[in-house]
């Protein structure tokens, strides 16, 4: 980290800096400096410094720039639902991503010592750093595709569900009409509350034969309810090959095992929960006297077989942050590993000789010595995360874009992606600048300390 | 070391078994992690080697039982597609000048900061260090206007200039730190011999600074090659690099998986080669405090 050796600094120190050069040699040096610095200073001045100043100024003007609006853009930024969502998501990012990357990097770096194929492991974890976030975005959009034929995560989930078939779900199930059962918001329930000691049956239809697990048996009448119980049967109200009476438990109708059944009291609280047997019967027990509505919650009937919609609005932030971790954990690992290799190992060995176990060695010696490196990694990641653009721009499909929004993407949206409000766009850019100010101060301070040393 | 061996010798059988056990747990654990890290990339690679019908009907993992699916068709289509080829060439036209310019301009400035005395040097250097952390987003709006006014908005030149300007603070910072470590005697000797500052820079500092220049070059190369945001705004359909060309296919993700997967891989080939060949230099650039 910018190791500046003592020798040249001391030499520089005893020469004059800061005072205008009076000697011809001094003037010549100034000309040399100007010649060497000119290209860089012109580019930095015109393309970095001037734009920063312009953007600050622009952020106080209206969308088209014609009108001075004071702090209005900054008020909009925190009150407009879309921008505010972006700021909130950035906050989640800053809290989750740097910690996860640093923690994983630390674990990997420490465990690396114990394996013979450390170089190969490092390459594998570090490789994502080389590819573009666009390519990483394409990769992860594929990994998390809802269609289990494309998305490997959902393929794995479906495979696991197939193995543990009893975690049954009956997508598309609905009640047999006019049998005293009704449905609302995906859940199926008894039309009227029943008293303790009574029976509530659920004849269901609309279930594909393939979704009925092999464990299902002929449906049976539930044993009559004892004290504090409500019983009943959940069955597929269809006889294969036809026949039978609707709403009756006939020969050939199958019980539906593994259906969750709940008793809901008058206040809407769940008073008891049960699961159906292979013959479809259930017993809700431990109920106080009174009347309860018996329901089969929606979770029984949601289609898990088609795969989880990872790219939907509710999970999209998780997916994008996971792909970020996939890229940047390698960075943290490499930085911490090089910090680790620079440590003097004799302290650790001494502690081991004294009988400290590996955890104590790590906790009391390695971790404190690594702290400076960990902090550098952490701060670098925070700055990087604040400006995150590509992954959030690439991974979420159209309908999830608002839910995944972050400041940099919103800045692009409002100023270039159709919004055409460069006043608000400038204000968002300034927000990013303000958020990285602490790191600027840290950089300058670190530089000054090195000079003084 | 000898003390250590004695202690090891004293370990009980139970301790030794525990040691072997924990070692194999670590091995298994890291192997699982490695597989997790590899699967996404491998999956996309295999998907890029299957045609669009196969990709829409079954998962890429079915190739392990039916390897006959593998085909280079997607790549053939892509490499005969003028838009993709053009955008790949644009990427080269952007990345090579942007990298070389950052190296040359950055090295010149770094030399002045390291070895030429001039008033206000420390203050100017602090300005550069402040600029190190400026987000690229801050300049998007003003530079879009400025480049529009001078007629380079939508051109390769505009994209190059943006990358050079925002690459310079890090370049100056990294190279200056390295240049100051060059022994002063070497420069003094050259000065006494009457060498001009330009000659000292060219013959002494630049060659001795090559390791740092390599680090900077690799870093800047990967950074520019992989950029999406700047090119998205500052290039047009004629000057767009490969990243922008690929992202324009994203809208129809499911239908375009063949183009997207093979396109993503083509865009990854060069960075991966550079990365594997010069990994050491890349790591050094990161270690030198990449606050970008």
What would your notes on this structure say?
The complex is a heterodimer of chains A (453) and B (292). Chain A contains 14 helices and ten strands. Chain A is an alpha+beta fold. In chain A, helix 3 packs across helix 14, helix 4 (81-112) packs antiparallel against helix 13 (407-415) and helix 13 packs across helix 14 (422-452). The longest helix of chain A has 35 residues, at 24-58. Chain B contains 15 helices and no strands. Chain B has helices at 2-10, 13-48, 52-57, 73-79, 82-115, 121-131, 140-149, 156-179, 184-192, 197-208, 210-225, 229-234, 242-247, 257-277, 279-287. In chain B, helix 11 packs across helix 15 (279-287). Chain B is flat. Chains A and B meet through helix 1, helix 2, helix 4, helix 5 and helix 6 of A and helix 1, helix 2, helix 3, helix 5 and helix 6 of B.
Quaternary structure of the protein: heterodimer
Count structural domains of chain A. 3
Number of strand elements of chain B = 0
**Structural class given helices, strands, pairing of chain B?**
mainly alpha
Q: State the secondary-structure class of chain A.
A: alpha+beta
Descriptive labels:
heterodimer, A: 453 residues, alpha+beta, MetI-like fold, 6-stranded antiparallel β-sheet, 4-stranded mixed β-sheet, 50% helix, 10% strand, elongated, B: 292 residues, mainly alpha, 2 domains, disordered N terminus
Write the layout of secondary structure elements.
The complex is a heterodimer of chains A (453) and B (292).
Chain A: H1 6-13, H2 24-58, H3 72-79, H4 81-112, H5 118-126, H6 133-143, H7 152-163, E1 174-175, E2 181-184, E3 187-190, E4 194-195, E5 202-205, E6 230-236, E7 260-264, E8 270-275, E9 281-284, E10 291-296, H8 316-341, H9 346-353, H10 358-386, H11 390-394, H12 401-404, H13 407-415, H14 422-452
Parallel strand pairs in A: 5-6
Antiparallel strand pairs in A: 1-5, 2-3, 3-10, 4-10, 6-9, 7-8, 7-10
Chain B: H1 2-10, H2 13-48, H3 52-57, H4 73-79, H5 82-115, H6 121-131, H7 140-149, H8 156-179, H9 184-192, H10 197-208, H11 210-225, H12 229-234, H13 242-247, H14 257-277, H15 279-287
Helix pairs in contact in B: 2-14, 4-14, 5-8, 5-11, 6-8, 8-11, 9-10, 11-15
């Amino acid at each position: 980290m910018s190791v500046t050796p003592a020798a040249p600094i001391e030499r520089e120190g005893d020469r004059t800096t800061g005072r205008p050069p009076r000697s011809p040699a001094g003037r010549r040096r100034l000309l040399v400096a100007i010649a060497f610095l000119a290209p860089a200073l012109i580019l930095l001045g015109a393309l970095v410094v001037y734009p920063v100043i312009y953007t600050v100024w622009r952020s106080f003007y209206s969308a088209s720039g014609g009108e001075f609006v004071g702090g209005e853009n900054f008020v909009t930024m925190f009150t407009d639902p879309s921008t505010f969502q972006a700021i909130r998501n950035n906050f989640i990012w800053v809290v989750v991503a740097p910690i996860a990357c640093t923690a994983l990097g630390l674990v990997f770096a420490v465990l690396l010592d114990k394996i013979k194929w450390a170089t190969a492991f490092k390459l594998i974890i570090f490789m994502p750093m080389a590819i573009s976030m666009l390519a990483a975005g394409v990769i992860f959009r594929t990994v998390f595709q809802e269609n289990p034929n494309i998305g490997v995560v959902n393929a794995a989930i479906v495979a696991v569900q197939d193995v543990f078939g009893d975690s049954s779900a009956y997508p598309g199930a609905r009640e047999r009409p006019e049998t005293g059962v009704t449905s609302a918001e995906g859940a199926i329930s008894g039309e009227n509350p029943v008293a303790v000691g009574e029976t509530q049956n659920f004849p269901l239809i609309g279930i594909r034969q393939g979704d009925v697990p092999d464990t299902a048996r002929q449906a049976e009448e539930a044993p009559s309810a004892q004290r504090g119980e409500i019983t009943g049967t959940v069955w597929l109200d269809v006889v294969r090959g036809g026949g039978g009476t609707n709403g009756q438990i006939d020969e050939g109708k199958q019980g539906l095992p593994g259906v969750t059944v709940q008793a809901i009291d008058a206040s809407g609280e769940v008073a008891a929960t049960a699961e159906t047997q292979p013959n479809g019967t259930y017993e809700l027990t431990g109920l106080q006297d009174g009347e309860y509505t018996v329901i089969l919650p929606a979770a029984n009937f949601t289609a898990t077989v088609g795969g989880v919609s990872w790219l939907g609005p509710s999970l999209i932030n998780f997916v994008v942050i996971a792909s970020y971790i996939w890229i940047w954990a390698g960075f943290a690992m490499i930085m911490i590993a090089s910090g680790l290799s620079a440590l003097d190992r004799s302290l650790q060995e001494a502690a081991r000789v004294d009988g400290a176990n590996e955890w104590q060695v790590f906790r009391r010696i390695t971790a404190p010595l690594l702290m400076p490196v960990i902090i550098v990694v952490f701060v670098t990641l925070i700055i990087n995360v604040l400006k995150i653009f590509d992954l959030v721009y690439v991974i979420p499909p159209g309908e999830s874009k608002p839910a995944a929004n972050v400041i940099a993407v919103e800045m692009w949206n409002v100023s270039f992606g159709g919004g055409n409000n460069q006043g608000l766009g400038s204000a968002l850019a300034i927000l990013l600048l303000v958020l990285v100010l602490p790191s600027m101060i840290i950089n300058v301070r670190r530089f000054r300390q090195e000079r003084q040393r | 070391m000898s003390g250590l061996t004695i202690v090891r010798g004293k370990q009980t059988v139970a301790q030794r078994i525990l040691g072997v056990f924990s070692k194999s747990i670590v091995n298994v654990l890291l192997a699982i992690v490695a597989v997790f890290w590899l699967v996404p990339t491998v999956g996309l690679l295999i998907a890029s080697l299957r045609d669009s019908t196969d990709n829409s009907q079954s998962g890429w993992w079915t190739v392990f039982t039916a390897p006959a699916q593998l085909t280079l068709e997607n790549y053939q289509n892509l490499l005969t597609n003028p838009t993709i080829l053009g955008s790949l060439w644009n990427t080269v036209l952007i990345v090579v000048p942007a990298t070389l310019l950052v190296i040359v301009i950055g090295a010149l400035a770094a030399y002045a900061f390291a070895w030429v005395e001039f008033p206000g040097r420390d203050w100017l250097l602090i300005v550069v260090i402040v600029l190190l952390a400026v987000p690229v987003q801050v300049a998007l709006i003003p530079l879009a206007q400025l480049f529009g006014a001078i007629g380079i908005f939508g051109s390769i030149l505009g994209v190059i200039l943006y990358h050079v300007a925002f690459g310079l603070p890090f370049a100056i910072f990294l190279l200056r730190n390295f240049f100051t470590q060059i022994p002063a005697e070497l420069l003094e000797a050259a000065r006494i011999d009457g060498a001009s500052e330009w000659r000292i820079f060219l013959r002494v500092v630049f060659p001795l600074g090559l390791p740092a220049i390599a680090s900077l070059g690799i870093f800047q190369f990967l950074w520019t090659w992989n950029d999406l945001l700047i090119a998205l705004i500052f290039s047009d359909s004629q000057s767009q690099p490969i990243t922008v060309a690929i992202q324009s296919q994203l809208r129809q993700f499911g239908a375009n998986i063949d183009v997207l997967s093979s396109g993503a891989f083509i865009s990854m080939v060069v960075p991966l080669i550079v990365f594997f060949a010069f990994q050491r230099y890349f790591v050094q650039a990161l270690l030198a405090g990449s606050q970008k």
